[in-house]
Amino acid sequence: MKNPLKLHIWGLITLCIIITFGPNHAYADNNANSTKIYLKHVNEYEIHPDQLDIPLKLYIIRPESYDTSRTYPVVYAFDADLSLGMMTTLTSLVSRMARRSDLKPPIVVSIGYGDLKKAFERRLKDLTPYADHYDLPKRPNGKKWSNIGGGDDFLDILIQDIKPFVESRYNVDTSAETLYGHSLGGLLTLHALHSKTEHFERFAAASPSLWFNKRQIINDIIDFHNTLASTNSKVPLRLTVGGEEEELTGWSEKYSKNADFRRKWLKENRMVSNVNELQDMLFSTEGRIDVEFKIYGGLEHAIANAPAFYDALRFAIEPYEVRN
Q1: Which of 70, 206, 284, 295 is most buried, taking the most CB atoms under 10 A from its CB?
Q2: Where are the domains of the chain?
Q3: Residue of 58, 42, 83 whose CA lies nearest to 310
Q4: What CATH number does domain 33-317 carry, 3.40.50.720, 3.30.1050.10, 3.60.10.10, 3.40.50.1820?
Q5: Do the Cβ atoms of 238 and 292 come closer than 8 Å?
């Protein structure tokens, strides 16, 4: 029998292209001649963490059938400013299918800054792990690397400020918490897996930037995987990547202003190869991490976020079974 949560991949991609990945907030354009269109089942909050010099926006997506007498699994996700519309639509879709499958639908907490420009300025700092030394390639835009390494502080804010804030306002099942991130967010998700393991039950890293700082995160994950735990429990990880993330294809190739450099950047950063090598290492030895791996054929880096998030929602709410 087919899994009732299974969705045809190209239908999903078409849906998410329609929603777009652009700057998303809890409402649309504020033009005087228009009417604001609010995202259903989304509440927006602003918090002011002591460790951060700017406020953060929290967009909390509730299940359509939210019942205050029940508890719900929760997914914490980075990059709200890039992906909130997509996350809202897919959460609604999964929530409806979960009800039909007798599963608890998820609450999604999407973390951002409330401004797309600010998000691009800040995410490089807030989503990269701290290191004493960095060895980084030349950036595609030619700019210098600066303001990096704030990821550990950002994770502390998530754990010490954001999680208690959410738990005080929503019926969260604290034994079913998943962390999701794409790209640099995927990098920080993997960093949290080995450094903040006890604060989340499951981890989903989509197209993670494993190239950052000479692939240091791969070494950290493998060291963690090979370390004996005090218990026999596994750490569930869903690891995904788009099949075309090492090539300049489609619109990116046709309209890129610096196609040659972009092509070189993609080839040298080895997004698909790095993820393949990491999952091979995890599968080849018995260790602490139980990995579920998937390549989304034909998809580039940004678009691969959509099916990865959809599958991460399923991963967060379906019964967990050890895979390897």
Answers
A1: 206
A2: 33-317
A3: 83
A4: 3.40.50.1820
A5: yes
The Cα–Cα gap between 190 and 212 comes to: 12
Instruction: Say yes or no to pLDDT of 86 above 80.
Output: yes
Q: From the DSSP assignment, how many helices (H) and strands (E) are in the chain?
A: 11, 8
Per-residue pLDDT of 97-134, as tens digits, reads 999 999 999 999 999 999 999 999 899 999 999 999 99
Edge-to-edge strand ranges of the sheet holding 235-242? 42-47, 56-61, 107-112, 72-77, 172-182, 202-206, 235-242, 289-296
pLDDT single digits (tens) 10-65? 455 445 544 444 444 554 455 566 766 688 899 999 999 999 999 999 999 999 88
The dihedral through the CA atoms of 257, 262, 263, 264 has a sign that is positive
